[in-house]
Amino acid sequence: MKEVHWLVPVALDFLRETAPQEAAAGWYDDDLLSAVLTRRESVWRNAPQLARHLDETVRMLTDLSPYIQREVENFRTNLSGVL
What we know:
Mean pLDDT: 88
Strand content: under 5%
Low-confidence stretches: none
Number of helices: 5
Order of helices and strands: HHHHH
Radius of gyration: 12 Å
Helix content: over 70%
Oligomer: single chain
Distance between the termini: 23 Å
Shape: globular
């Protein structure tokens, strides 16, 4: 579980860096984003600043694929008190 504590921030920074280019390209369907969005709720509750970081990054993206959009909705629903 410790690897999550250093892998998640690296993944979030990469997603934030690439979000503007991805948004400009249109359709967004990304395995890394999916992997981050589907981490256990406890990961985000233990690091609420990272949950907010991810939520802000996702808000930069447009035209998400339907399955990514479902993952975003689940993430936001499960963590509504944190975000």
